[in-house]
């Protein structure tokens, strides 16, 4: 049994934020029907890194966010699309979309359209800047939101200028809030007997995760200033940061200065043993620590520091993470077979449930791969399905085709 068995989601999303949210729900057992553009599908299918592709032309951008889904590739502007999607909505539980505000309403697939068919439906919309306001019609994208939210001034050195976080922070936080809202609405529906509308935007998702920083700025009346040393948070003093060792890198978090002195066994560090000094002279102290830490390997420092219960860990490049002993122990990565990409390594479900564990049951689908079976389940016969394909309303890609 899965936690979301018998929950059906009509997923109109593409790119990252929406697909990640619906994938998380699919991992928990929900039946996710991914609605895609005929022929080309999700825009992320056409994007890649290094100008390289996986297997027979599959995208490393698309595959990670779309497992545990079936794909229905259908032209939303075709009259037949309404009949099909409205029929699906009769028994669906959730609709998720991340078009710009107003697009789904114009197509006839807005909240009111689906609510008339099914008052219990939960309709979740994900946007960049929110459903209305001065920026509502602007393109909303991860990097743009990182910039406006101030997150780009939280990392790096003072002289670097703004530094973007090297992962899709805004999209992934938005996905978390989107899935959280949907789960809360499903729970509320069990108590109230009706669905509701959910609106999530990237901007507020990032602002909410910066709450500690904004609380400090707004209530202490001063801004953060990044140091030149690379201290990992602009509000912290030494030793908080990442240091180069003889053979790699070491992260050191907040720690009593006495423990740092004991680890380095250097009485010259006594001069810095004051909280205000550790902040005011943090660039200088970082340099002093870096000089000392560089003489031993990462493993040697871990042995020394962990024996003193110092908060530290190796800092790893992406290529090395999967081989870390704790990562292996957690089974944080697993492998599945994809009909065109072949055997691929993927990130596993990041939490465990004792009674209703999640599972990875399907790889990311091909464009429209499950269209025929979805329509057969709705009662369409073979000739009617073939006619939709001839008209270009429906497209189907099959494994091996």
Largest sheet: 7 strands, mixed
CATH superfamily of the largest domain: Crotonobetainyl-coa:carnitine coa-transferase, domain 1
Strand order of the largest sheet: 6-5-4-1-2-3-12
Number of domains: 2
CATH architecture of the largest domain, by name, is 3-Layer(aba) Sandwich
Q: Evaluate the radius of gyration.
A: 25 Å
Identify the overall geometry: elongated
Low-confidence stretches: none
**How would you classify the helix and strand content by structural class?**
alpha/beta
The DSSP helix count reads 16
Query: Can you tell me the CATH class of the largest domain?
Result: Alpha Beta
How much of the sequence is in beta strands?
5-15%
Mean pLDDT: 96
- Strand segment tally: 12
Order of helices and strands: EHEEHEHHEHHEHHEEHHHHEHHEEHHE
Please bin the fraction of helical residues. Answer: 25-40%
The separation of the N and C termini measures 34 Å
SSE map:
Layout: E1 8-11, H1 17-27, E2 31-36, E3 69-74, H2 79-89, E4 94-97, H3 103-107, H4 111-117, E5 122-127, H5 142-148, H6 169-192, E6 197-201, H7 202-209, H8 211-220, E7 241-244, E8 249-252, H9 257-264, H10 275-280, H11 282-293, H12 298-307, E9 312-314, H13 318-321, H14 325-329, E10 333-338, E11 342-347, H15 371-378, H16 382-390, E12 394-395
Parallel strand pairs: 1-2, 1-4, 2-3, 4-5, 5-6
Antiparallel strand pairs: 3-12, 7-8, 8-9, 10-11
């Amino acid at each position: 049994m899965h936690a979301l068995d018998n929950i059906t989601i009509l997923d109109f999303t593409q790119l990252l934020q929406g697909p990640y949210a619906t994938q998380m729900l699919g991992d928990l057992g929900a039946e996710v029907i991914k609605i895609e553009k005929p022929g080309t599908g999700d825009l992320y299918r056409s994007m890649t890194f290094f100008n390289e592709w996986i297997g027979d032309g599959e995208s490393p951008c698309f595959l990670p966010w779309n497992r545990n889904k079936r794909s229905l590739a259908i032209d939303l502007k075709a009259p037949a699309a309404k009949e099909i999607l409205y029929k699906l909505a009769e028994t669906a539980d959730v609709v998720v979309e991340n078009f710009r505000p107003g697009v789904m309403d114009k197509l006839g697939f807005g909240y009111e359209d689906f609510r008339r068919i099914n008052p219990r439906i939960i309709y979740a919309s994900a946007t960049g800047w929110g459903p209305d306001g001065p920026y509502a019609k602007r393109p909303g994208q991860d990097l743009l939101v990182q910039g406006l939210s101030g997150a780009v001034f939280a990392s790096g050195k003072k002289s670097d200028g703004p530094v973007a976080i090297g992962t899709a922070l805004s999209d992934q936080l938005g996905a978390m809030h989107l899935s959280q809202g949907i789960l809360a609405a499903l729970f509320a529906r069990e108590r109230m007997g009706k669905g509701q509308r959910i609106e999530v935007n990237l901007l507020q998702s990032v602002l909410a995760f910066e709450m500690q920083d904004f609380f400090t700025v707004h209530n202490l009346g001063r801004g953060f200033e990044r140091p030149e040393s690379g201290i990992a948070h602009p509000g912290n003093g030494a030793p908080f940061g990442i240091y180069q060792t003889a053979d790699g890198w070491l992260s050191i978090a907040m720690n009593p200065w006495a423990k740092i002195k004991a680890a380095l066994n250097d009485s010259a560090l006594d001069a810095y043993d004051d909280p205000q000094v550790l902040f005011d002279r943090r660039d200088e102290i970082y340099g002093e620590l870096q000089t000392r830490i560089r003489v031993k390997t990462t493993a040697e420092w871990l042995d020394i520091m962990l024996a003193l219960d110092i908060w530290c860990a190796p800092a790893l490049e992406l290529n090395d993470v999967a081989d870390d002993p704790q990562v292996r122990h957690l089974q944080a990565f697993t492998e599945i077979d994809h009909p065109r990409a072949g055997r691929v390594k993927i990130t596993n479900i990041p939490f465990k449930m004792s009674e209703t564990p999640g599972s990875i049951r399907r790889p990311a689908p091909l464009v429209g791969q499950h269209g025929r079976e979805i329509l057969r389940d709705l009662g369409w016969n073979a000739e009617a399905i073939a006619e939709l394909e001839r008209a270009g309303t429906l497209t189907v890609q099959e494994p091996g085709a």
